Structure formats: structure tokens, C-alpha cells
Amino acid sequence: MAANAREQGIQYPIARDGKQTSAKAWQVHYYPTYAVVDRKGIVRAIGLQPGHVETVVKQLLAEPAS
User: Fold this and answer.
1) Per the CB 3.0–4.6 Å rule, which of 10, 46, 52, 60 could disulfide with 5?
2) ω into residue 32 within 30 of 0, thus cis?
3) Mean pLDDT calculated for residue range 1-23
């Protein structure tokens, strides 16, 4: 996974669910599937195309940290 991330130029934190606990809970059917979690721990976006992850993260970072 780390090698693939380097090849794709991914510079943000990544994780893999080896036991697929999250994949089953979130009904992930394809890889990669991107999930963006906000400051409160709420999943705000899932299934994004790689090019849209940064846009979503920037939008969430622009929200007030309350």
C-alpha cells in the first residue's frame, strides 16, 4: 500500500483496514475508496475520486472548529 501511495503521489495520511471491519460497515465495494472524517469524527464524504479529496478536506478545514 505504501508503494502504491508513493507511485500515485499521495501525500496525505492513508490507512488500510486489514480485517475489513470498516469496509463491511461502510459497504465499500471498490478500491480505493476515500472517506473524509471531520473534526468531530463524523464521516462527511465517502467514495470520492482521488482528485476531489483535497477539495473536500479544504472545505472542512475552512469550517469553524467549534
Assistant:
1) 10
2) yes
3) 85
Is the pLDDT at 23 greater than 80? The verdict is: yes
Q: What is the 3-state secondary structure (H, E, C) of 1-66?
A: CHHHHHHHCCCCCCCCCCCCHHHHHCCCCCCCCEEEECCCCCEEEEEECHHHHHHHHHHHHHCCCC
CA neighbours closer than 13 Å in the CB half-sphere of residue 5: 10
Q: Is 66 exposed, middle or buried (0-12, 13-18, 19+ CB in 10 A)?
A: exposed
CA-nearest of 21, 9, 4 to 54 is: 9
| The predicted structure's pLDDT at residue 60 | 93
Give residue limits of the domains in the chain.
18-66
